Amino acid sequence: AEADGSNEYNNYQPGSLNTTNQIIRDLKNIDIVFHIGDICYANGYLSQWDQFTSQVEPISSTVPYMVASGNHERDWPGTGSFYGNMDSGGECGVPAETMYYVPATNRAKF
């Protein structure tokens, strides 16, 4: 979420600014960040990924930043997702897998 709300397509992300700002203030005490699912709630709006990566850059450029796929990165009918919902907005994990390296035997299984 932008501090001024200029790129918000929905109004349910303002809390992410509080979390991000607190992590940035406490970076000297943090060794690694694990972001477990629902990485940016882009839901198919790729501009949200640009905003999100800018928001977390002070963190991810300072400490290791590991991500795990959530329903908003993966769920789409016919993709093999457990739920088969449309939470990813059609992204199907492509932006997340492209932007973040996840150590795995088969990288195709983000």
UniProtKB/TrEMBL annotation:
InterPro entries: Calcineurin-like_PHP, Metallo-depent_PP-like. Residues 14-85 form the Calcineurin-like phosphoesterase domain. This is Purple acid phosphatase. GO terms for molecular function: hydrolase activity. It comes from Thalictrum thalictroides (Rue-anemone).
